[in-house]
Known about the structure:
six-stranded antiparallel β-sheet; alpha/beta; 26 strands
Amino acid sequence: DWLIEAGQTAARGEHEAALAIIDRAATLAQTHSAAVYATISHPFGETPNFEAMVDTILQPLRQFLYGLSLIREMSLQSRDLVLSFGERLSARLLATLLNARGVAATFVDARSWTVTDDTFGSAIVDWPATQQKLNDLRPYWADCVPVNTGFLGSTPDGRTTTLGRNGSDYTATLLARGLGAEEVIISTDVPGVMTADPALVRDAYPLQRLSYWEALELANFGTKMFHPRTMIPLIESGIPMRIRSTMRPDEDGTRVTVSADQSSERPTSVTSLEQMALLDIIWKRTSGQSQVGERVLRALDRAAIPLSMANQAAHGQSVAVVIRIDRVAEAIRALRDEFALELSRNEIAPVQVTQPVTLLSLVAEAMARTPSVAGRFFGALGSVGINIQAMAQGSSSRSISCVIDAAATPVAVRTVHDAFNFSHQDVNLLILGKGVVGSELLSQIADQRAELRDTHQINLNIVGIANSKKIALHPEGMPPQAWSEALKGSDTANTPDALRAALTHLRHLPVPVLIDCTAADDMEQLYTEAFHAGVHVVGANKKPLCIDRAAQQALMQTARRAHRAYSYETTVGASLPVIDTLKNLVRSGDRVDLIEGSFSGTLGYLTNELMSGVSLSDAIRKAQERGYTEPNPADDLSGLDVARKALILARELELPVSIEDVHVTPLVPQEILDQPDLEAFYDALKTYDTEMNQIISGVQAEGKTLRYLARIEPRSPGGGPKLVVGPMSVDPTHPGAQLRGSESFVAFTTERYATYPLIVRGPGAGGAVTAAGVLTDVLRIAQMLRGR
């Protein structure tokens, strides 16, 4: 990079500034060489004069830069010569250091044997001539280790060329072919070819084996580990290549051979080629479209603009190509020249440019024999709301690619990586509320975390937790057992701004989920911000679903438009699949005629206790001690909680109702519920015990059972929907008569389930079951995004 900068600076006439850049490079080379030499305990021969050596090697460059400053121009040919000094310097210094270490080494300038054409910047190798030169040179290397310059060549008349940036690997495979090597080893900064860019996917890992063709696809689609042409000599010679870590040379790394691992059906890797532009060429005429694609490719080829992807619509009216963003102006000029006549006649639309974009690709040798790869690929991207602007799949079926907005690159790469089960899927959680449900959820995550990771490949990370006063964020995740200490040690107050900042952080993590275990008001605004930020929501809070109907519908629409999941199963039946069952009935076209049930495990428990002879005040106190009630039991007895649940189910049927439309009768008189504190509340309950006992005696005398029920009639005799909540006496054959403890039930009477209602029954109260339902919703989101 410094060499290019020096050449460009000289071409502007700034000779002294260019020399200053070379001085900086020289100092770096001298300092590093001396530092390496100092680590050799018993060096051989005289101490090298690195300063003089570097100056001697770079002196011709200084003179050449002076020439560039006079002509004020740097051609591609000049650029190649300038670039060559980096390899010539480093290879000569390495050979010197090896000799000092006692390893007989000799410097070899690859220009002495790599014969190319004069395509400067990306020269084409003349293999027969190159092979002959290698055969001639090989005897002179004798028993020395030849240290070759990388990515350099020369034309037959001796002009310096380069094979392209990252072309040193290409030089290595050319040399291997010419020498009949057993293996080529590339040492780099990662432990092999990774399943994704580690900078984007934290749990990307190295592949054990690749085929030449997979490696070639990866190189073409953005893997910067080797030059696309690196594979050509290997394919032609059958020599394997190994890629491994410089810092961990004992590890196997990735072995690239003729064939891939045939036992694996998983795709190889997901790559992202960034800083690209999408060009659309649209043909307006009804004839001649078959030639449009050919002419586009020919025009870009004449301009020496490489294509990363080209796609022509089946009808031939439009062509889309993907090129590097820095070549857009050249490409537009080339296309305008090619279609000048058609543009003047308005037979072709002006070239449309979308930039910056990313070319996202999935590569797999086994893709052709694995069904539904394309469906899972695009389905995973669609599930997180990523728009596909263009797509292509090669005839070899080794890869599938699409063009996406550049800003979506990190999310897209992580999503595809997770969807194809390359590794554990991270699910990152921000949990609001540390009450009964929140605390139990954290406990269940702690208990299940290892099982979920090992058996289901889902890794739950708690990156934030909040109570009503504080919020604690841990970007790398915190142990579920440490949440209490995390909150105590946090200095961040739980404010709207702090929650927004937490969402901003969360949105950049894989599968971000906001979990609301509170009963707070006005949470719909936070949910909306979460959806816009790309965060999924799991809510045990009923209140956002019971707001004004228009606002509630807008909230749901926001989630759909943002392609975010909003799961709220626990708002009605704790861990019971009540909402999911109702959704499936509606989706399948069934007509719901009646929904009836005990929606409150708390009130179910209380009525059971009352029927067994326990006084009302004692039953409520016992329920509170067991965690069945809200902190203020009056909230349960009012029936408002049941009314909200009834409203949620009614809205799942698209009924135009609000909370005011629910006719609610509390379990106890309103004056008891209006008591100012808990002690006064229990005192008032005691005074009502006698009357409640009389009510129970009357119910028992009729051979019935008291239950607190909700009834939803979508089409009542009056014509409109009817929602009723309150204490009701039921016959022994009624589904609610058989409830035990805190059990709840919901009965769906429908057109298909007319004679015998569809009944969902089970525990309906308690932190443990509600937390289990919340965890189930989280896992459902993870599985949905994973596509399995």
